[in-house]
Structure to design on (219 residues):
């Protein structure tokens, strides 16, 4: 029973799946279960498009579910790298160990917010890339509960906003192990419980969409 919601579900199988991918494929895109590097880089760009880097000051970002810090690798290759204060967080010690070895000068943490009920922060932006794309053996209802608990737990620690991606329901067929979330259902939840200030990105050619949720309008 998690976050005081009265709901019960098991998300540990999702974690085990990703750790198995890391063991099998190593520190690669397939090690975090993305099929190819090109699409993975597209996702990093879309996530970072949310971040306002035009204010002339450093922006703090929490990479929630950071894996082996591939987002940080992407950021370090961009012209704005010096403007980003990066922190990585993951539930898996195995992923965090790899990330720390790669980037000893950056802050990485292991935490399960549904048990710890705490996210160190606040941060300007929290990015949750790939956290909700797979549901594995969970039913849709169990994954929906998990998703809502996670978003509700994370959003208070974002001073400006959060970004996350889910699988689209506007596809020819849906995979049983993926989390295909209808936009109208998500919009109803966000507007009623999190913030009315959100944007759906469905313009980057993948079978998913990204949502930006802002604390204030016009951010």
């Amino acid at each position: 029973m998690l976050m005081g919601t009265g709901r019960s579900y098991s998300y540990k199988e999702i974690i085990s799946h990703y750790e198995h991918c890391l063991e099998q494929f190593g520190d690669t895109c397939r090690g975090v279960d993305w099929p190819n590097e090109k699409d993975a880089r597209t996702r990093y760009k879309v996530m970072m498009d949310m971040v306002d880097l035009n204010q002339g000051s450093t922006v703090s970002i929490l990479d929630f579910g950071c894996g082996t810090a591939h987002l940080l690798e992407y950021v370090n290759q961009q012209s704005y790298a010096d403007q980003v204060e990066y922190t990585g967080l993951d539930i898996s010690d195995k992923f965090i160990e790899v990330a720390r070895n790669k980037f000893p000068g950056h802050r990485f943490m292991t935490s399960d917010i549904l048990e710890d009920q705490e996210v160190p922060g606040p941060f300007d932006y929290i990015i949750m890339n790939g956290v909700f794309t797979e549901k594995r053996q969970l039913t849709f209802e169990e994954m929906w509960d998990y998703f809502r608990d996670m978003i509700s737990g994370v959003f208070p620690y974002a001073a400006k906003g959060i970004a996350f991606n889910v699988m689209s329901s506007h596809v020819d067929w849906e995979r049983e192990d993926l989390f295909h979330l209808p936009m109208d259902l998500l919009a109803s939840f966000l507007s009623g419980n999190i913030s009315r200030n959100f944007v759906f990105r469905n313009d980057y050619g993948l079978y998913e969409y990204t949502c930006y949720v802002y604390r204030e309008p016009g951010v």
User: Anything to note?
Assistant: Confidence is low (pLDDT under 50) at residues 1-6. The first strand starts at residue 59 and ends at 64. Residues 12-214 form a domain with the Rossmann fold fold (CATH 3.40.50.150). Residues 140-154 form the longest helix (15 residues).
